[in-house]
Amino acid sequence: MALENIESWTGRAIETASTFEGEGVAFKKGDILFGKLRPYLAKVHLTETDGEAVGDLWALRHQKHVDPCFAAYQLLEPGFIDRVNGSTTGAKMPRAEWGFVGSIKVPTPPLEEQTAIAIFLDRETARIDGLIKKKGRFIELLKEKRAALITHAVTKGIDAGVPMKDSGQDWLGQIPEHWDTVPPTALFTESKERAHEGDQMLSATQKYGVIPLEEFEALEQRQVTMAVTNLDKRKHTEIGDFVISMRSMDGGLERARAVGSVRSSYSVLRCGPEVEGRFFGYLLKSSLYIQALRLTTSFIRDGQDMNFSHFRKVKLPRVPVDEQIRIADHIDRETARIDGLVAKTDRSIELLKEKRSTLITAAVTGKIDVRNAA
């Protein structure tokens, strides 16, 4: 199928009144909402009712010789999005201008062919979206399994036949009979050692642990505001130390992967001889421990920081070091297998998204004839 008619995008931006204060747009059924801020996000929505929306949006109304569903797919076509994105102004908040977007030339087949293309794409993209959704749910289940595996291993052990006993701690419940529960101070000491001269700045992150600030910026591809005051009060951190930060309430304690210094408001924990770092790395980020840690503080009410005083309130299991090593090895092995499945499924989702985009491009530009298929 060759699309011979090439014309400017066959819709127009609608100047509409809105009851919203500030930016907002009113639209009618069949209008297409298009995000003019950061257009690379491809925010395109074909409306099914009249209504109003808040945001940096255009309400685009198709002309009579255009099928609105086909027009929506035209706006989603990656080549179109790339051209719009390339025209934006503003570094931090790039916006497109309708004067440019409205003049972009697009293939425009007869109306009946537009409808056939739209029907075909509706069916095929729905099929692909269904597969993506199933794979996304599979990833969620794998992550739930991963978390459950870790929590069970660090609180119950990995020996199925071992006798159990009540730990006396609500968050732990039953534990192996040969384990004890002890105050955290029996296993860790708080270090208040000041930063050394030349210490690199470390960033305490839930995603990567405690790593150099420069490494965090490179991984996240963004800049972080560096501290410029109270540098002499920063705390020295060694590899393997644990750090308590404000984020510990949500994601547990972070383990240091490098030597350097952290903020003075953070608490630094040194491991004692009965601590295997990997085992407690998993334990102190497990869901049950995080819930127990949250119960030690009410800083939503009084604004207090989370620190060593909260940490010491939650008793911890004392496990033979050789068993800690076996448990950590087991978790490393099993989580690596699960992480491999997650990565493989993530890649298959990316391939499906690429297929979806390629299909839309081929259909709306006439590279494939879908009339019979539709």
TrEMBL record:
The keyword Zinc does not apply. Its EC number is 3.1.21.3. Keywords: DNA-binding, Hydrolase, Plasmid, Restriction system. GO terms for biological process: DNA restriction-modification system. It comes from the Bacteria. InterPro entries: Restrct_endonuc_typeI_TRD_sf (IPR044946), Type-I_RE_S_subunit (IPR051212). GO terms for molecular function: DNA binding; type I site-specific deoxyribonuclease activity. Gene3D superfamilies: Bipartite methylase S protein (1.10.287.1120), DNA methylase specificity domains (3.90.220.20). This is Type I restriction-mod. It comes from Ketogulonicigenium vulgare (strain WSH-001). The gene is hsdS.
